Every structure is written in C-alpha cells, then in structure tokens.
Amino acid sequence: MAPKTYQTITVVIPLGGEVTFDVEGVKGKACVDLTKSLQDALGGDVTSSKKKPEYFDKETEKAKLKTGV
C-alpha cells in the first residue's frame, strides 16, 4: 500500500493586513485552482503571487481529477 500524500492550504488572515495562502503537497497549477474559490470569497483581488518550485513541476492526473480541471 502506497503512503498517503496530503495537500494542505494554510490561510493567514491578519487584522488589517494582507491575506496569504500557502499550499503544500500540490504540483503544477493545481495550487492556483485549489485557492481560487477562497480568493473569490475574500474579494478576489490578488496583489502579488509567489510560486514555489513545485508550481513548475508537472501535476499528476490524480491532482487534476481532485481539482476538477
């Protein structure tokens, strides 16, 4: 049996500050797809984006299926 892999999204909402998202365990643009509904719920204005090295890795079919894209 293969070990389970986990995907996490950490959202930091400081008082009067900038909201940040940190996505772990996701490859490719799936991280953007996972956080889109959260961004929309919070107003949808993205002022900056910093992509981790995993963003540039090829996402797996399994990740594509989970995000629905």
Protein model, in words:
- The protein is α+β, with helices and mostly antiparallel strands.
- The protein has one domain.
- About 30% of the residues lie in helices and about 15% in strands.
- The protein has two helices and two strands; from the N terminus they run ββαα.
- The protein has helices spanning about 30-40, 60-65, and strands at about 10, 20-25.
- It has a two-stranded antiparallel sheet.
- β1 and β2 form a beta hairpin.
- The longest helix is centred in the middle third of the chain and has 12 residues, at about 30-40.
- The N and C termini lie far apart (about 25 Å).
- The relative contact order is 0.21.
Number of strands: 2
Widest β-sheet, arrangement of strands: 1-2
The ordered string of helix (H) and strand (E) elements is EEHH
Number of self-contained structural domains: 1
**Share of helix, binned:** 25-40%
Computed CA radius of gyration, to the nearest angstrom? 13 Å
Uncertain ranges: none
Shape: elongated
Please give the largest β-sheet. 2 strands, antiparallel
Task: Output the number of helix runs.
Answer: 2
For the record, give the distance between the C-alpha atoms at the N and C termini, rounded to a whole number.
27 Å
Nearest-integer average pLDDT: 80
How much of the sequence lies in strands comes to: 5-15%
Overall SS class: alpha+beta
